Amino acid sequence: MTGFALRRIAIGIPVILGVTAIIFFVLRVLPGSPVDAITQGTPTTAAERHNIIVEFGLDKPVLSQYVSFLWNALHGSFGTSFETREPVLSQIDGQAGATVQLAAAAMVLTVLLGVGLGALAALCRDTPVDAAVRAVSMLGSSVPIIVTGPLLILVFSFTVHLFPANGSGTPAELVLPAVALALFSSGVIIRLVRNSMLEVANQDFVVALRAKGTGPARIWLRHILRNALVPAVTMLGVQLGGLLSGAVIAETVFGRQGLGSLLVTSIQDKDYPMVQAIVLIVATAYVVLNIGVDLTYAWLDPRVRAS
Amino acid sequence: MTRLSWLRAHLLVLAAIAFLVLLAGWALVPSLFTSGSPTAVNPVASLLGPSAQYPLGTDQYGRSIYTELVYGTRPALEVGVAATLLGGVTGSVIGIIGGYLGGWADLLVMRLIDILLALPGLFLALIFIAALPRTLPNEILAISIASVPAFARVLRGQALQVRSLPFIAAATVTGVRRGTIVWRHVIPNCLAPASVLAAVNVGVAIVVAASLSFLGLGPSEPVLDWGALIASGEGYIDKDWWISVFPGVTVTLLVIAVSIIGDRLRDVMEPAHG
Amino acid sequence: MGEGTLLEVRDLTISHRGAGLVRDVSFDVGPGEVVCLVGESGSGKTLTGRAVLGLLRYASQLRVSGTIGFGGRDLNSLPERELRRVRGAQIGMIFQDPVAALDPVIRVGSQIAEALGARRSAARVTELLTQVGITDPELRARQFPHEISGGMCQRVLIAIALAGQPRLLIADEPTTALDVTIQAQVLDLLAALRRERDLSVLLITHDLGVAAQLADRILVMYAGSIVESAPAAQFFAEPAHPYSQGLLRAVPRVDVPLAGRLPAIPGSVPEAADRPPGCPFHPRCDRALDVCRTRPPELEPVASGLVACHAVNVPAAQP
User: Fold this and answer.
1) Which of B234, B246, B255 should we substitute to test contact with A (largest number of A Cβ atoms within 10 Å)?
2) ipTM of the complex in this document
């Protein structure tokens, strides 16, 4: 198992490196002159422009800027914001918490809904319950967050006054955004768990279990569900990406102060160091989490560990 | 099968196709479907609910939501189709090269896909949106780049599978040139999963574009697109809900229609899925 | 329920949408007896084996009728909860593909312990593994099914089947998926277990060699019915039914040089829906009489066994 883990981590490192390259070069090379981004169109003298260039190290060759970027990143410094002239990390620090909370809550809900409803649909196969669950999951994964968000707000904040529509401080404010995200990403999981369970139920070892005298509860929960979770876990890794993207949108819809809304404003302000830092952090977190998913997958299915 | 039973069996797909045809009509000849102007401001009629005159209500500037919806269809479909075509073809080519050639090419392709996928969903598009001026073509470029990894991965898998089929070995052994093999055998066999993915991707691309507009990161021209509509209605959601809800429903129906077609394509092309 | 009969199957009929896959099958298994159900694929022997334990209840399109007498009760009409108590504890079963018959994500030892139920313990698991001839049982118990060989998996399945100390073991093609040398080992194991525990075995197989090694009595199934029942010795010396004769003629012999091609039975087993009227075997039979085409034969006594054939006294056509 440790060999497997080490191999996954070894593959992850060049990927992260590649990601930093893409982020850096796209944001450094494409925009044309970053000086204009920094000055935001206010008229500047040639001397002022020169100072800016030196201040942000823009006169050095791009490759060496990249290397310094990496070097600094490894030491925890992501540069200075074009906008505020403050270190980028300090701003991110403050906002990251709300995003992590949202992503975690949404993930937990997705797993609960996905496995719970998926198993329910499998057990009640071909009954109205099954059809209802499948229809709801299809609908859920089709409705984009920019639509579910306002709808949830309309129903649960304004019509029923159950949950607040905005804010990132209290747990109650987590509910609607997490539900919006979970509704979207659990759709795929529900269908996958259902189909996976039904496939497993047809396998030979289930007949053998019955011949052994094992009871149905044990067969479904300990054996079938456990086997069905294996492909579901890989899908969770994929959905995680969607959750992170969705969080960016959800934060704007629900007025939360997090990395997502910070990213959006930074893009609007053309604050490249900030955009770089946020995207890099999110990408690294995503790669690490995916390694976690792979490890969970290997733990669940011992046949994978050999590869 | 009688006509009626054929209709019933295919009802869902037919409805989906009909809906898409309607939207295509809205996109191509909007003036046929609505008489008003999407941009003319009419303060007298502001914030009216759905009625005979304004079937979907009006927004805060007195413009008919229905009219705005119709005129907003063209940018939405343009982005969806163009991004899918561009990203799809690029991704497919990359994937097929890696899957069919194997060796170093494949290793390179796999790493590239891994790196692109490390930026989940929206983020890959966002860095390009951040770096480039805010125009429609640039948005299409950004979203197509974000579509590349999915196509590359699927087509690589398909090319790998096709490569190991006996008739490919037979063709190679009898001296058929590699290029010909790819053109006449590999590519036709890869069209099926590519089209299934493309169908779904159009829906995804349109949602991404709408989400970008919602966030205020869409192209500065044209101003009128579904995402922007939904965003502008958010502040009024408690009383004048129709501003956000109707465009939302339209987008959702589009996504559903496109998934239905994608599912049906898959059933038709890959009967192995049971 | 006859004295000394462990399993009494009467008029077992299994049908799928009206087509009879197994028709009016009746047989007994006595204590400590090895009864071998022999037939080609499509003969209905696997379905019969599964029907005994009620495993066909989960296939909604199959209808099972008849009685399955065991321990004074009819298993076919037993409610699910009671039947579960019979499975494993009184009747055990092993299957054709041993690796596929085990849960791939759970360790072998746990799966054996599961069969032990309330009496589970590491010591008992090790004991069972040793009894089926597995060396280094503690190591094996911790392994997963894909880590051990096919032959060893089959021994594990036997261990699981024995955990409940059953009186009858149903073995559905237990050696078909194994190498010939391993086959012999598994059969030896079954023979030893049968002697030591007075275990009855219902052995289902298409391989006459396997049957010859283990069986006390042979039941030949063809197209869903039993066509011959005989003690093993008699069966191999003087098979009565034309189909049995054809089967034995087709087995290559080591003591006589091969002269020309192996005599095969012409034609193939009919599908359930295409069964001809009268005797199901008559289209392929070399001595079919007119009555064979219209009236299905009943099982009649012949020597120490039973045969369902109108032409049983007609000599075989000369090759």
Assistant:
1) B234
2) 0.86
